[in-house]
Each structure stands twice: as structure tokens, then as C-alpha cells.
Write a sequence for this structure.
């Protein structure tokens, strides 16, 4: 119920995102067939080219002229960097795809790209991910192209751009999450991308060396200090047979893990003490955090110490978010962003040691992680204001009824999903665009989620769901994957079929009614399938849920971690069932019991013939204005989507465009 109150506010933004993705990306957001066919080859050619996407290096002078690198600008103040190939400009002009972006000299408003929902900025972030994940991507050989990119000029531009963007109060209020991610990715002499590098490096090693896959899964799923020992032992045991390139990556991974787990992360926080005095709210909370870390001295931290540290770090993240608009200078706001990124990294590492031993401690952990999610921009300020009371742990959990506990657990699960929706909503259109020619782009959103507080938040939410299932004497069974109770059934049913797991865009998938699909989101034109589970739940009148209810298709919502964990089972013939109470079962056919086999056999032989009564249906054939409809008209005049849109139109007349509805009567006639 709490999240329903938020829908009207976030719905407007999501609708705007979708409309902009369709209207403003060239070719209506879809590449033309001939361009789609050519782009992968162009990308491969850039990977092999020593100059990558560039044609040469030039001076860019203050008067707007461009001259060869060996010459000099007539007046001081010029900058030198690479200049893109003509085909790069053609792709940019025709498709709105910006490859090999160089920041220095780029007009700030052009890079922000507000009219296209900040597409160019997001493409820059996506390309940085691809360069880490795919051995340089289009810069694979151009990384060694001397003078192509000048680090000093990029950092100077980055500082100027971020200060400019953060000076816009409206932009800060509406795009906090995006601006915080931009501060993470755009060079400005304060980089905090070490966690991202750990994940992409481990992924690259596993892609070339299958024996490393177990360690890669561990690092991506449950990172903790033991990862350093695992990597060191693996490298020592395999050093003699490792290719030099892989050994270099393992050495880099070891170094980064040491920086995370052996270096005092509080030293980075201490650097901000001079920026924010004790009378600044974030400055005060920063000192509380450092005091929490200093209280244990050189002794090992106790569970109580770790809990206190995590709680104070969550409060710091929230304090930064809440007080940033009152921080007057853009330079100070940028420092706050940097402090926020460092605090999240520290919280991320500390959380691996916080293992709640009581129900109240688990509820408190989930509450604090939700607060941290709000502090990092995954929830809007008004959303957290609506959610906080529902998630706040009660003083006496012994008096908590099962219904109250189940409600808190469900609200927590929805908060995690809502936060994941922020990442998908912000970056989804750009990922869809790039996925048409670069499959690895699909991994960007998963990387952002795993790099954020959402990874431990999802795990803590799943623990709470386990407690509820234990009290209810039920539990999900999804092969042997971790955190199976993160899944929740939406529509009851059962099916057998081949399991298909799709981590990227499902838009080009040829769906079969003989297969069971686990996907990020359902495509708009989903056809009947044997069974389906999605990361994005949608709403009760979404296409996938209406299809599932009308055809009896088992349907569930799963976490991003669940989807990743199911990839190894892809291609297996499985039994999939969702109970009316929301319990989810997925297992190999060989493990079906007699009752389950009997259900499937009965399903094969049953045939239904339905007679639809027209007594309660208004069969008038007059086309209706949507604003005249209400939810109560569902099943009488029209279907639930049209009726509910009519209800929304009456509640929010300025948010829902006018429309016409074709009633049942026209189809009957």
C-alpha cells in the first residue's frame, strides 16, 4: 500500500523515459536493418585498429580551428587530443550513438544531453564499462595510441562539468542518482571505481580461464575479505601455466583486493574533515563515523562494533543526500558526492561482517540498508519519506504478529525491487540501444546493481523472507540457488519445459509455448509461453500478468541475483510451479514426485469449453472516452487496463493523456 502512494510520482518519470527513448533516439530507438548488420563489424574493426575510432591527433585552438599535432595554435589555450574517424560522426548523426567520446573541449550541455534524457552522458558511462569488461572494447589497441587522450585535460573538464551540473538545483533534485553515478565515472582527480574494476577484472579472467569461474561467482555474489586469499592461492597454484596477460590481470585483481580489504578505508574519509566542519550536518556525521571506527582501537571489531559502523555509515549517506541542496557552492557539493561514494564503498565492505543474530537485528539491518539506498539516490526523497515508517523496526519484536512481520518483509522486498527499478529506469533505453549491436552492454545494469548497496540489501531482504517462510512452514525451492525466497509467485500454475534464461533485452527473442523463461522484463508483445519469471514485476494489469492469469501460466518475480544464479541451469527440462500462496518451485524433471507427475498428466488430457455470460456486460457499441471510465467498469464495458487508466485519468488528469476505448459491444457485434 505504501508503494502504491508513490506510483503517481514515479510513473510520470518512467512514462517520460519510455516516450523519450522512442521519440528521440534516431530510427525510433531501433537501428535500421542495414545499420544493425554493419555495426558489429565496425566495432570489431575499431578493436583491431591501433588508432581505434580515431583518425589522428590534432590541436584544438581557442579560435575554433583544428590544426595538425606538429603545429601550434596561434594563441595560447589550445588542447590536444584525438579526432574521431568520419564514420564515427556518421554513426553519431544517423543513430545517436557516441563512440570513443573525449571529454576535453565538449560543450557541457551537449554532453549532458538533457533533451534526449541524458543519453550521451549515459553512453559515456556504458562505454567505460565496456572498456573494462571487454579488454578495452573499441579502444583495445588504441589504449596505446600516444596523445589520443590527455588525462590532465579530461580531469580539468570533468571538474568543470560536474561543478556546472551540480549548480543546477532542479537537476540535482530530479537526477540525483544519475549525477552521483556521473561523479563516479567522470575523471575529476577523485576516482572510486576500484569495486567496478574488481568485478570486471574477475569476469574477464573467468571468460578466458573457466577454472576461475567459482572465484568469479563468489566475488560477484558474496564479496568479503576471503576473496583475497582465494585469488592469491589460485594465482600461486597456476602461475606456471598462466598466459602472461591473465597473470597480469590476476596481479591487478590481487592489488585491488588488498586496497579494499587491507588498506584503511577510513583514511580516505579523514581527507574530508577539512572540507566539512562539525557544524555542517554531514561533517558532524562524518566525525561520528570515524569515532565508531576508532573506538575499537587495534583490537578486532566485535559484532556490536560492526553494526554501529554500518548504522552510522548509512546515516552519513542519508545526511549527505538530505543536506546537499543546502550546500551552496558546487565545489562543496562535488566534495559531498565524493564523500558519499567513499562512504558507500566502506559500508559495502563492512556489511560482509554484519551477521544479525536476532529478528530485530535483521529488521534493523534491512531498515538501515533501505536508508542507505535512499542516501545513494536509489530511492527518491519523497519515496523514503513514505516508506520509512513502514520499515522502521518495532521496539518489541516478540509482540510482532505473523501478519505484521509478513507485511514488513513484503515491503522490504518491494523496496529492493523499486530500487532496482531506478537503475533500470535510468539506463534501460541506452542499454536497449547498445544491445542491438553489442551483447555485453546487457551486463552494465547488473554491474551497477552489484556495485551498489543493493547487493547486500537484496541478500538481507531474502534473509527476512526466509524467516517469514519458516514461520509459515513453507519455502521456495529453486534448484540449489542461494536466496531462493527472494522469488515470489504472482500467478499460480504449473508447467514443464526447457528453461531459458535471458539476462539481456528480450525484444528479439522468439518465444515458444513449450519453454519456461526467466527474463529481466517482459517484452511488450509477449506471446503465450509455458511459464515465466521476471525481475521487473510490472503491475496487475501489465501484459505479462494479464496473459498469465488468462491462460493459467505460472508467473513469478525473482531478484537479479536469482536470474544470474539460474544461468547454469539453462537448457534443462524442468518442472515449474507457483502456488496460490506465492511459493515457487523449479527443479529438474527427474526430481518430480508422483503428485507433480500426476498434475502434468492430467493437464495434458483436460480440455475446457467456456461459455461467457453476457448478462452483466454492457454490449452497447459506442466508442468511449477514457476519462469517462472507472475501475468498476472493468469486465462490464471494457478490460481492466482501459478501466484502470480511466480511473487514473480521473485522479491525475494532468498526467494521463486523453484516449478512446473500444468497448466489448463492438467486438460482440
Amino acid at each position: 500500500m505504501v508503494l502504491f502512494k508513490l506510483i503517481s510520482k514515479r510513473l510520470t518519470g518512467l512514462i517520460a523515459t519510455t516516450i523519450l527513448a522512442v521519440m528521440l533516439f534516431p530510427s525510433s530507438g531501433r537501428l535500421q536493418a542495414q545499420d544493425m548488420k554493419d555495426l558489429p563489424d565496425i566495432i570489431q574493426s575499431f578493436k583491431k585498429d591501433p588508432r581505434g575510432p580515431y583518425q589522428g591527433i590534432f590541436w584544438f585552438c581557442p579560435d575554433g580551428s583544428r590544426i595538425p599535432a606538429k603545429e601550434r595554435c596561434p594563441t595560447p589555450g589550445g588542447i590536444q587530443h584525438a579526432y574521431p574517424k568520419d564514420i564515427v560522426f556518421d554513426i553519431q548523426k544517423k543513430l545517436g550513438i557516441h563512440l570513443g567520446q573525449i571529454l576535453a573541449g565538449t560543450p557541457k550541455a551537449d554532453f549532458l544531453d538533457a533533451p534526449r534524457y541524458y543519453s550521451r552522458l549515459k553512453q559515456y558511462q556504458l562505454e567505460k564499462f565496456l572498456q573494462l569488461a571487454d579488454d578495452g572494447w573499441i579502444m583495445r589497441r588504441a589504449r596505446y595510441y600516444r596523445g589520443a587522450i590527455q588525462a590532465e585535460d579530461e580531469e580539468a573538464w570533468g571538474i568543470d562539468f560536474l561543478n556546472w551540473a551540480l549548480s543546477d538545483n532542479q537537476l540535482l533534485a530530479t537526477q540525483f542518482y544519475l549525477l552521483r553515478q556521473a561523479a563516479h565515472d567522470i575523471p575529476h582527480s577523485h576516482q572510486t571505481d576500484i569495486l567496478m574494476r574488481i568485478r570486471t577484472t574477475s569476469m574477464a579472467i573467468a571468460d578466458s580461464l573457466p577454472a576461475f569461474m567459482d572465484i568469479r561467482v563468489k566475488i560477484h555474489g558474496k564479496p568479503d575479505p576471503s576473496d583475497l586469499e582465494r585469488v592469491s592461492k589460485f594465482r600461486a597454484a597456476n602461475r606456471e601455466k598462466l598466459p602472461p596477460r591473465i597473470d597480469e590481470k590476476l596481479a591487478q585483481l590481487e592489488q585491488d583486493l588488498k586496497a579494499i580489504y587491507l588498506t584503511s578505508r577510513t583514511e580516505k574519509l579523514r581527507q574530508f574533515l577539512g572540507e566539512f566542519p562539525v557544524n555542517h550536518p554531514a561533517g558532524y556525521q562524518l566525525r561520528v563515523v570515524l569515532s565508531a571506527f576508532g573506538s575499537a582501537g587495534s583490537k578486532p571489531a566485535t559484532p556490536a562494533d560492526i553494526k554501529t559502523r554500518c548504522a552510522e555509515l548509512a546515516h552519513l549517506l542519508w545526511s549527505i543526500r538530505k543536506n546537499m541542496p543546502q550546500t551552496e557552492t558546487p565545489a562543496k557539493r562535488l566534495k559531498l558526492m565524493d564523500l558519499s561514494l567513499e562512504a558507500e564503498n566502506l559500508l559495502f565492505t563492512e556489511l560482509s561482517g554484519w551477521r544479525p543474530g536476532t529478528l530485530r537485528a535483521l529488521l534493523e539491518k534491512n531498515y538501515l540498508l533501505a536508508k542507505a539506498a535512499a542516501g545513494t539516490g536509489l530511492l527518491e526523497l519523497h519515496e523514503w519519506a513514505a516508506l520509512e515508517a513502514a520499515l522502521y523496526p518495532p521496539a518489541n519484536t516478540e509482540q510482532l504478529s505473523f501478519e505484521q512481520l509478513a507485511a514488513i518483509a513484503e515491503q522490504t522486498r518491494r523496496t529492493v525491487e523499486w530500487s532496482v527499478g531506478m537503475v533500470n529506469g535510468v539506463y534501460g533505453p541506452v542499454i536497449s540501444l547498445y544491445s542491438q549491436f553489442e551483447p555485453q552492454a546487457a551486463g552494465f545494469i547488473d554491474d551497477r546493481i552489484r556495485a551498489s548497496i543493493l547487493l547486500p540489501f537484496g541478500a538481507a531482504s531474502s534473509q527476512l523472507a526466509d524467516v517469514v517462510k519458516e514461520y509459515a512452514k513453507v519455502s521456495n525451492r529453486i534448484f540449489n540457488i542461494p536466496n531462493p525466497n527472494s522469488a515470489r509467485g504472482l500467478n499460480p500454475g504449473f508447467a514443464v519445459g526447457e528453461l531459458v534464461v535471458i539476462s539481456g533485452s528480450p525484444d528479439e527473442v522468439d518465444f515458444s509455448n513449450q519453454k519456461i523463461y526467466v527474463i529481466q522484463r517482459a517484452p511488450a508483445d509477449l506471446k503465450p509461453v509455458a511459464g515465466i519469471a521476471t525481475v521487473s514485476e510490472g503491475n496487475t494489469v501489465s501484459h505479462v500478468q494479464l496473459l498469465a492469469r488468462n491462460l493459467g501460466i505460472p508467473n513469478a518475480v525473482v531478484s537479479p541475483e536469482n536470474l544470474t544464479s539460474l544461468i547454469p541451469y539453462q537448457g534443462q527440462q524442468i518442472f515449474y510451479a507457483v502456488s496460490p500462496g506465492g511459493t515457487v518451485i523449479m527443479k529438474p524433471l527427474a526430481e518430480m514426485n508422483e503428485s507433480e507427475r500426476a498434475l502434468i498428466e492430467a493437464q495434458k488430457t483436460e480440455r475446457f469449453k467456456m461459455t461467457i455470460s453476457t448478462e452483466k456486460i454492457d454490449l452497447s457499441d459506442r466508442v468511449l472516452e477514457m476519462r469517462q471510465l472507472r475501475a468498476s467498469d472493468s469486465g462490464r464495458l471494457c478490460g481492466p487496463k482501459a478501466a484502470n487508466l480511466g480511473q487514473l485519468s480521473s485522479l491525475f488528469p494532468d498526467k494521463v493523456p486523453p484516449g478512446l476505448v473500444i468497448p466489448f459491444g463492438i467486438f460482440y457485434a
